[in-house]
Structures are given as structure tokens and as C-alpha cells.
Amino acid sequence: MRHAFLADMGVVHLKCPGIPAFPVDSHQLLYLVEHNHIEYPEIKAKAIWDRNKADTFARILTLVQIIWFLIQAVSRWVQHLALSTFELSCLAFIFCSINTFFFFRHKPRDVETPSLLACNTTVAKILAEAGDRPKPYTQTPLDFVKPPISRTSLIAPFWFGVRICFNWGNHADELPIKAFGNSTTTPPRGIRVTDIAYGNIFTTAYFGIHLAGWNFSFPTRAEQILWRVSSLTLFGLLIFHLFAVAFGTVMAARLARWLFNNRDATTILGVASLLPRWLAVLIHSPIFVIYGLARGYIIVEGFFALRALPLSAFDSLNWSNFVPHL
């Protein structure tokens, strides 16, 4: 797992004859080893962790602080003590952080010096053996070694919209690139039903946390209404996104045939890529604007609401209430 993280961070570079060294991700590294273009890298897991700039003790301490804050927040709710919108927003980020701690527990941090792998096979020969003739690439010559984007991916449509609206990641100033972005969306084994279920539960819970502040005390009635509208907007955008992915998964091939007379596109991203750029931007831009306004208000109000908190927000927890009295 650590080797895969290291490769996907763009720290493993391949040096082929006649071309500058370029990064290879975990999929490409596995492909090169399986096709005998390189030997299995002699990189020990311990050596990878030695290059990790994140201190294990600091990670544990941070996790303890996060859990302690979560316990306090739940305890205040049990004792009917007020929580601020700022604390509620912190709970949402804590929810994300706990997931990040778990899924990235094997990921080294801030490894910058690349590990160079020598390959005696030319890129042209690798492409020829793969049945893929040399052609322009967007990142590295091994772009063809990529798993197909899953039809049911919840993340891929988001990154597609980002690339369309902000022209992000569509081209590099220098090829081959020197590092990878953090937008890998498909694991090597594909996306399983359990992944989809967990993704739906996680995102629903994260966006739903802000709705818990529906009846919180706010300095003004207008701020309370704006909080409710923003929370509902974020949750509504999530439901819309999930519905669009489900609809696209089922109807993508038919839409491609009906609208574009295309029989090759079978996924929602395949259909979206057939749209003219101006139309794709027109469809995605309002969604990003609405999301940005709603998310921005949630963040700003978390600070502004601190100017007028209810009295119970200043009360301390009475931990003895949780101890059974015999």
C-alpha cells in the first residue's frame, strides 16, 4: 500500500532512453513490472516511511484532540447545552478528517525527492508492444495505462466539471509532467458496491451535518434563514449530483445515441465529453456558483455568529451527570 501511495504521489520516476525521466503511478508501475520492462523496485516499506515528514506522535495527538472535541460536542448536545455554528462546522471537518486519517494511514507525507527507476526499453517499443502507436499525450507517454473510469464513480463527474469550468488539468506547460495531481478516481480493483454505499453514506452525513443547526440560536432572524437556505442548498446539490450519476449510469448509452448519434459513449462522462465546451460550461458553472455561495456563507457565518451566543454556550459540561449514581 505504501508503494502504491508513493507512486501515485509522483515520486517514482521512470528513465527511458531518449526521453527525460517522468513519474509513473501505481497502475503504470504494475504494468511495467508485469510486462518485464523493469524489475520490481527494491524500495523497502521502511525506507519509504523514513522519508515521511509527518511525525507519528503528532498524528496520534491530533487524532486524540479530534476525538476529544467530538466527545465534548456530543456531550453538550446530551446535556442540552448550546453549540455554536462554528463548532458545528468544525464537526463536519472532523468527520472528514477521521476518514482521511483512516484511508491515508499508509500514505507518506511531503516526499519530494524522486526514486529513479532505470528502464532499458524505449518508450516507442513499450507503446508498440502494447499495440498503441506513439501519439501526443497529456501527462506522460504511459497515459494509456489507465483503468477505465467507473460508470458509477461519484467523484469523476465532479473533476470533469472542475476541468471544464476552470480549464484545470487539461494541459501541462511541460511534457512529460513532473508530478501527478490528486484527482485519481478509480482504484485498480474498480469500484465495488460497498464503495458506492460508503460514499453515499459519507457524503450524505457530511452535507447533512449543517442541517443540525436548523434551530440554533442566531444573532438575527435573517442569519438563521440564510443558514437554513445554505444548508438545504448544499444538501440539495448533493441529492442532485447523486441522481445525475444514477441517471447517467443507466441512460448514458441511450443519450449518446439519441442526442449525438454516437454508439461509443457508454458512461455519463463519455456523453458529457461530446458536449460543446460552451454548453458544458453553461451547465456546470451555475452549480459551482451556487455551491460556492452556500459553502461560503456557512463558513463566514460560523465566525459571525460568535458575536452573540446563547448563555448556555458558555456553560461547562457536568461530567458527573454521566456517572451512574448508586
Automatic annotation (TrEMBL):
<feature type="transmembrane region" description="Helical">
    <location>
        <begin position="81"/>
        <end position="104"/>
    </location>
</feature>
<feature type="transmembrane region" description="Helical">
    <location>
        <begin position="234"/>
        <end position="255"/>
    </location>
</feature>
<keyword id="KW-0812">Transmembrane</keyword>
<protein>
    <submittedName>
        <fullName>Uncharacterized protein</fullName>
    </submittedName>
</protein>
<keyword id="KW-1133">Transmembrane helix</keyword>
<keyword id="KW-0472">Membrane</keyword>
<feature type="transmembrane region" description="Helical">
    <location>
        <begin position="275"/>
        <end position="294"/>
    </location>
</feature>
<feature type="transmembrane region" description="Helical">
    <location>
        <begin position="56"/>
        <end position="75"/>
    </location>
</feature>
